């Protein structure tokens, strides 16, 4: 019979760890001698070696008790499951490390690199910091909630902003922020925006996007809150598009 200190020395673990195994029910409490000290047998040593081996292999303590007494087939099956779980955790850690490296390099964790590069180019095109900030928030929301749709919208908008005529309309929209909401220039700008939208997209597409635009409306309402002029401009554009769609819609007989 050996003491807990000798047992720990033979197996290469601490006495505290052995007490944890007792508390978890992995290793039964041995009988005590007349002085009250635990006395362990060779079989306890064998069981402790099994426990230590499985623990070092990454087997959770909650599963060790069943595996030490199970068959070789059960141990092999459990090892396969644990390896699959470990592979998943490793993949997540690798992805986390990649994101941390991007953060360390100054890259945004919220948007794809192509979107960040596009936002940087907007400065060169003359857009205000206010506009760029609002557009960044819009893309963060869109890519987080609907990534497939976001890529389609992003491709379309970058092409529109690169177009000389449409790009100028975007700039005028940006600069209208501080206008008086009753300024006649807003109605004229809204009319040109509606004409450009009808020329670029089919009325059927505009009608469908309008019907499915709950999230864009939420975003637009937040944008409008920063400027009474933008709020009126948005209302004028929506009214113009509704008139065009209604005119285009077939009448029933």
TrEMBL record:
Pfam families documented for this protein: MerR_1
InterPro entries reported for this sequence: DNA-bd_dom_put_sf (IPR009061), MerR-type_HTH_dom (IPR000551), MerR_fam (IPR047057)
UniProt entry tagged with the keyword Transit peptide: no
Record keywords: DNA-binding
Residues annotated as domain HTH merR-type: 1-70
One MF annotation (Gene Ontology) recorded for this entry: DNA-binding transcription factor activity
Keyword Signal (UniProt): no
Domain of life per record: Bacteria
Name of the protein this chain belongs to: DNA-binding transcriptional MerR regulator
Organism: Kribbella shirazensis
